Amino acid sequence: MQTLAELRLGSEPDAVPRARRFAVAALEAQPDPLVDDAALVVTELLTNAVLHGAPPVTLRVRQLDHGVRVEVEDSGRNMPVTVRHSTEAMTGRGLPLVAALSASWGVEANRRGGKAVWAELTPESAETMPADNLPDVDLDALLAAWPTDDDSDRETHYTVRLGAVPTDLLLAAKAHIDNVVREFTLARSDSKSTDPEIRRHFTELVETVTRGFADARAAIKRQAVEAAARGDVQTELVLTLPLSAAGAGEQYLAALDEADGYARAARLLTLASPPAHRVFRQWYVQSLVNQLRAQARGEEPSAGQTFPQRLADEVEELAVLRDAWDRLQLLQKVTADLTNARTVDEIAYVVVESARDHLGAISARVYLLDGDVLESLAAYGVDADVARRYPTVPVAADLPGAVAVRTGRPLLLRNIAQIVEQFPALADLYADSPERTLHVAPLIVGDHTLGVLSLAFPGGGQLGEDSQADFVASLADALAQALERATALATAHAANERLAFLAEASVALSGSLDYRETLSSVARLIVPRLADWCVIQVLDGDDLTNVALAHHDPEKVQWAEQMSDRYPTDMEATTGAPNVIRTGRSELYAEIPDELLVAAAVDDEHLELIRGLGMSSGLVVPLTGRTRTFGAITLIYAESGRRYADGDIGFVEDVARRAAFAVETAEAFREQSRRSADGENGG
Predict the structure, then answer these.
(1) H or E element, residue 348
(2) What pTM did the predictor assign?
(3) Which of 227, 278, 343, 669 has its Cα between 20 and 30 A from that of 582?
């Protein structure tokens, strides 16, 4: 057998095209079809040697009696493995192609500890040989033929048992990594479009992936291929490796993680490793490392975690992450809805409706802090007894919402027993209620507490209590920010409304010299902006006379005038207009309790009449001019359900003061006009 040509190569990026050109030149005297087939065989064998072998690589082209022999020799011991074809893999087609084109092919050990892969081609071989022309390689004989003086053979080897792994997963993971290696190899050979530093780094990654952990990868690949050939769904992985494979495995993992980083950044055509592949390699490499190091220390290796167990843990972890993602998406939706809500009421209802529709809460309630009281703003699913008993909650009360406000910290009550233990006053309310977990979170912006969010979830729900608490805290924060925004907008709107009201009032107050007409204009401006009812009274001798009465319903105005004639004002009353005129101080009734109506009623019929008004809140301010108090303005909220607060007193007093000055000015003008007329008549 005559050697026609021999080429020695290193690990240079252009090794494969150089070898192909070299072989074609050496076989120029052969028939063209044979030269073409030989060029393909050389390409595939050189590619395998570069990707999976170890330099130096030697190509020999020999003359046979009826054909040619191509040999590719390298210094590595990784055996070529024929895997089943996959349309998704960029590699794995080489050896089947060699088998299809060759009359025969095989693997031999060389004296330097490496191997030679050879193929013999004849003019008829491509047409006559089947594609599954696989060599019958005696691995034991091949291993025995290799010398035993290299470092790996001098190391103590240990048996690592990894257990059963799906065969399809092993083959798919192998194909994916081969794709990555192939692309890195192509990239490092591209001197025109790839940065030199990147090419150097790719070379290091290829070396780490293909060389350092080669024995373990080759053993797994071989066992997977053999299992697939037998039709085994699972492959029992058993490896015999030196301790140095542990460090090499860790470097291998790091290199593949870095390769995935390039893929995710779209710097590779190959996609990043699928999740199952990443889980598998992390599991098997870490298991291998643990077993090797334990045996090297003289310890019996533990069974460790099986791959199904590792997958179960991964599924559990992914489920937690999915829950977190779902909660984040939901929080974003609620936040968007809160952004679109304009008023405090709308914002509160967005939260309770979201609790009903999306959160799986069995109840939700938003309380807003008003002075020393929490007032229910919106509620869903609240037990009837709870809703009826606690429309308001004093901040000093021994109840969950009040405690959350006082401490500024959220409460988590895991079950009804814990609720009742900490808050005995609630025992009867929850006596027959289904089990629940109660979360109560204060609504805080900066150092300002706005209210409380209360959510109850079914006991034993899928979402863990800690996850619930984190979500409720985030939701409470979003709600507090939205309430703060709405309150600021409402305050600004109210300020603008008041400025506009004062402008209109100024025009009305200067429009007539008839004080009755002036005060009637003021009353009509006040309703409905500042009140549902407005009554303006002035002193007439020792009595109070109604000079203006306003309501949006004229029939009610007529009825009220009749009642005022029937039930005149008691000037000895200790509250209301008589007392305000005597003291010159305003009176605020944020709420009008029934006891106040009873005290003001003349008789039972009168009591029923004033109860029928449905008054919810009241404010009485004096009409005080430059020298005296001569009347009062009484404002009532009734059917609107609105309430007066401390912040309303100053504004309404300002309106009353302007009205009093206008009345005095009109009276002074009329008096001056009368005197002028008398003077003229006397003259």
Answers:
(1) helix 344-354
(2) 0.47
(3) 669
Cα 591 to Cα 582: distance, rounded to the nearest angstrom: 23
Give the per-residue pLDDT at 306. Answer: 87
Collect all residues with Cβ–Cβ distance below 8 Å to 108 and sequence separation of at least 6: 115, 116, 118, 142, 145
What pLDDT sits at residue 139? 43
> Which amino acid, one-letter code, is at 265?
A
Instruction: Report the distance separating Cα 638 and Cα 8, nearest Å.
Output: 102
Q: Please give the helix or strand (H or E) that residue 326 lies within, else none.
A: helix 307-340
Q: How far is CA 513 from CA 518, 661, 668, in A?
A: 7, 12, 10
Q: Are 140 and 166 in contact (CB under 8 A)?
A: no
Q: What's residue 636's pLDDT?
A: 95
Distances (CA, A) of 81 to 92, 122, 629: 9, 24, 108
User: What pLDDT does residue 86 have?
Assistant: 47
* Model confidence pLDDT, tens digit, residues 93-112: 567 778 888 888 888 887 77
Strand partners, 441: 453
SS3 call for 248:
helix
Q: Are 93 and 182 in contact (CB under 8 A)?
A: no
User: Is the per-residue pLDDT at 146 higher than 50?
Assistant: no
DSSP 444-496: EETTEEEEEEEEEEETT-SS-HHHHHHHHHHHHHHHHHHHHHHHHHHHHHHHH
Residue count of the chain? 683
Q: Which two tokens stand for residue 405?
A: 């406000």
Residue of 378, 386, 383 whose CA lies nearest to 344: 378
Tokens of 665: 């000015």
Query: In sequence order, which residues have a C-beta less than 8 Å from that of residue 146 and are 6 or more positions away?
Result: 77, 109, 113
pLDDT in tens, 421-480: 999 988 888 777 788 889 999 999 888 899 999 988 887 544 456 677 877 888 888 888
Whether the CB-CB separation of 114 and 143 falls below 8 Å is answered with: no
| Residue 17 token pair | 């095209």
DSSP assignment, residue 30?
Answer: S
Backbone angles phi, psi at 241, to 5 degrees: -140, 155
383: left (phi over 0), alpha (psi -120 to 50) or beta: beta
Q: With beta carbons less than 8 A apart as the criterion, state whether 507 and 527 touch.
A: no
- CA–CA distance, 407 with 471 (Å, rounded to integer): 20
What is the predicted pLDDT for the residue at 175?
A: 80
The number of angstroms, rounded, from the C-alpha of 165 to the middle of its chain's C-alpha atoms is 34
Mean pLDDT of all residues in 302-331: 73
Mean pLDDT confidence for 150-156:
63
Return d(Cα 630, Cα 652) in angstroms, integer: 16
